[in-house]
């Protein structure tokens, strides 16, 4: 679910935490080897929401993924407005090839450019592990 982040809106943080789980502490990140992902360049979002039309936008938008217990979360900034996308692992699918990483969440499709292939491969391995662990918990 893609939401616009408003600085004083604590409800969004609670909603993200309820859906995907709380952020890992530093100790849990070390134990689980979960430091997020490498950096990706956002190329397209379908369908266009919040007037985020990246084909007419000349600035580059970069993002990282945060793996949580039940889902995945990422933030990005467009025209000085911050957005958050989050979804559970069972509502999340992806495709990856040489330079492209396409993510489909429950309502949106994101086309990303892979900037570091080796780190991307490591992230995919961790993503599969987290996805399998979340299925075992249920």
Describe the structure.
This protein has 138 residues and is an alpha+beta fold. Helix content is 28%, strand content 35%. The chain contains three helices and nine strands; from the N terminus they run βααββββββββα. The chain has helices at residues 10-20, 26-32, 117-137, and strands at residues 2-5, 40-46, 61-63, 65-67, 71-78, 81-88, 93-96, 100-104, 109-114. The strands form two sheets. The chain has a five-stranded antiparallel β-sheet with strand order 3-2-9-8-7, with no helix packed on it. A hairpin with a 3-residue loop joins strand 7 and strand 8. The model has no long low-confidence stretch (mean pLDDT 87).
Which features would summarize this protein structure in a list?
globular; 138 residues; alpha+beta; 9 strands
Strand numbers in spatial order across the main sheet: 3-2-9-8-7
* Tertiary shape: globular
How many beta-strand runs?
Answer: 9
What is the terminal separation in angstroms? 22 Å
Query: Largest beta sheet, briefly?
Result: 5 strands, antiparallel
Q: Would you identify the regions where 5 or more consecutive residues have pLDDT less than 50? A: none
Structural class: alpha+beta
- The H/E string reads EHHEEEEEEEEH
What is the mean pLDDT? 87
Helix proportion: 25-40%
Q: Number of helix segments?
A: 3
Strand content: 25-35%
Rg for CA atoms: 15 Å
Give the topology.
Layout: E1 2-5, H1 10-20, H2 26-32, E2 40-46, E3 61-63, E4 65-67, E5 71-78, E6 81-88, E7 93-96, E8 100-104, E9 109-114, H3 117-137
């Amino acid at each position: 679910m893609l939401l616009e982040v408003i600085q004083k809106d604590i409800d969004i943080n609670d909603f993200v935490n309820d859906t995907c789980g709380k952020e890992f502490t530093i100790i849990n990140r070390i134990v689980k080897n979960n430091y997020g992902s490498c950096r990706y360049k956002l190329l397209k979002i379908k369908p266009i929401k919040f007037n985020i039309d990246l084909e007419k936008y000349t600035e580059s938008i970069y993002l990282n993924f945060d793996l949580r217990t039940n889902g995945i979360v990422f933030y990005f900034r467009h025209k000085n407005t911050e957005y958050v996308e989050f979804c559970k692992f069972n509502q999340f699918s992806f495709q990856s090839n040489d330079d492209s990483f396409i993510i489909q969440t429950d309502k949106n499709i994101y086309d990303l450019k892979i900037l570091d292939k080796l780190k991307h491969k490591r992230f995919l391995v961790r993503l599969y592990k987290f996805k399998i662990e979340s299925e075992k918990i249920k």
